[in-house]
């Protein structure tokens, strides 16, 4: 049975999915405590929803939905995204996450009506900090995540794709960091993450030319991990693809994500300590003991 979490239950708390193993996450997310002011302003821009369905198989689907505006993020959707990330942080049985847009397109970034109304630099920076915190927490979930890109992923929508571990694209879909055309640069953490995904040369090209990236070019530079064809259902295929990484017992899948995350984000000496701690959670645990009893051979 699927558990559906829809709508605007809100929390002002910042969460750290990796607990004590993760000193840097605390530092990055701690600013969220002072975010009440921007949260109040975001509430003034309603519309759309961010919906979460958690399935018993351990895979959740997060849907960005504002079809009249090509799934642009209204203010309340930004708040809902934060709430749904909090839900996922508390989901101990979770292993995988698909992030997608409603109605055949991914997301066209911030709702330009909200952007126009809060176009002063002070509010802009607060909004960007709010989204940075949420997307950092999304990327740090102990779940293996994939963005299913159909249609367009523009501006903040392109940034959202980089807050997932993987990206799959449908033929004809495009990712475009349109920020330069708007006289901007990414502010939701998308530039920092893009550099880590495609390298600084490719990131510079994509940002400085606001280049449209189709599915084949995205695969060539490592931005996309594969193409999903519309036949057979894009979500079904994406979930099947994800299952090959997020299959197996939750404690082991979550431990895999955590060691990769610590290796990616921490200095080597801290990453080694974190890896030992994570290793300690699976060594001698039921799955490990069962594998030993089976005398597994990996031919
Ligand atoms: C860059 C900074 C970043 C941030 O940090 O905040 C942002 O994300 S800013 C937003 C960046 N995104 C855009 O600028 C998108 C602008 N829109 C488009 O380029 C096009 O609408 C589209 C997304 C390519 C779709 O084109 P098309 O298929 O031809 O449909 P329409 O243009 O008719 O769009 C349908 C409808 O949706 C409205 N729309 C689309 N995107 C947004 C948006 N981001 N905010 C608000 N509204 C949006 C569009 O205006 C149409 O509505 P109507 O005009 O009422 O018909």
UniProtKB/TrEMBL annotation:
Reaction equation(s) it catalyzes: (S)-methylmalonyl-CoA + H(+) = propanoyl-CoA + CO2; (2S)-ethylmalonyl-CoA + H(+) = butanoyl-CoA + CO2; (2R)-ethylmalonyl-CoA + H(+) = butanoyl-CoA + CO2
Superkingdom of origin organism: Eukaryota
Membership in a protein family: Belongs to the enoyl-CoA hydratase/isomerase family.
A molecular-function term among this protein's GO annotations: methyl/ethyl malonyl-CoA decarboxylase activity
Enzyme Commission number, as recorded: 4.1.1.94
Location of this chain's protein in the cell: Cytoplasm, Cytosol
Protein name: Ethylmalonyl-CoA decarboxylase
Gene Ontology terms: cellular component: cytosol
Gene field: ECHDC1
Originating organism: Scleropages formosus (Asian bonytongue)
């Amino acid at each position: 049975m699927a558990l559906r979490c829809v709508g605007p239950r809100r929390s002002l708390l910042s969460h750290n999915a990796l607990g004590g193993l993760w000193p840097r996450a605390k530092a990055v997310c701690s600013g969220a405590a002072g975010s009440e002011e921007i949260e109040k302003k975001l509430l003034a821009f309603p519309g759309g929803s961010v919906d979460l369905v958690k399935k018993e198989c351990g895979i959740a689907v997060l849907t960005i939905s504002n079809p009249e505006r090509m799934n642009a993020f209204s203010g309340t959707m930004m708040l809902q995204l934060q709430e749904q990330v909090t839900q996922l942080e508390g989901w101990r049985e979770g292993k995988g996450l698909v992030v997608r847009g409603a109605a055949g397109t991914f997301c066209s970034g911030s709702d330009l009506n909200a952007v126009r109304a809060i176009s002063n630099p002070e509010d802009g920076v607060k909004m960007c900090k709010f989204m940075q915190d949420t997307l950092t927490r999304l990327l740090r979930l102990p779940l293996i995540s994939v963005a299913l890109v159909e249609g367009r992923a523009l501006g903040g929508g392109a940034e959202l794709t980089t807050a997932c571990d993987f990206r799959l694209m449908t033929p004809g879909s495009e990712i475009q960091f349109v920020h330069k055309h708007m006289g901007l640069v990414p502010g939701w953490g998308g530039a920092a993450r893009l550099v880590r995904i495609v390298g600084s040369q490719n990131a510079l090209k994509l940002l400085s030319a606001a280049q449209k990236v189709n599915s084949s070019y995205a695969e060539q530079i490592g931005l996309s991990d594969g193409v999903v064809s519309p036949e057979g259902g894009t979500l079904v295929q994406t979930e099947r693809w994800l299952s090959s990484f997020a299959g197996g017992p939750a404690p082991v899948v979550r431990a895999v994500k955590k060691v990769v995350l610590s290796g990616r984000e921490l200095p080597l000496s801290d990453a080694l300590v974190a890896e030992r701690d994570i290793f300690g959670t699976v060594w001698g645990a039921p799955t490990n003991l069962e594998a030993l009893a089976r005398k597994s051979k990996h031919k």
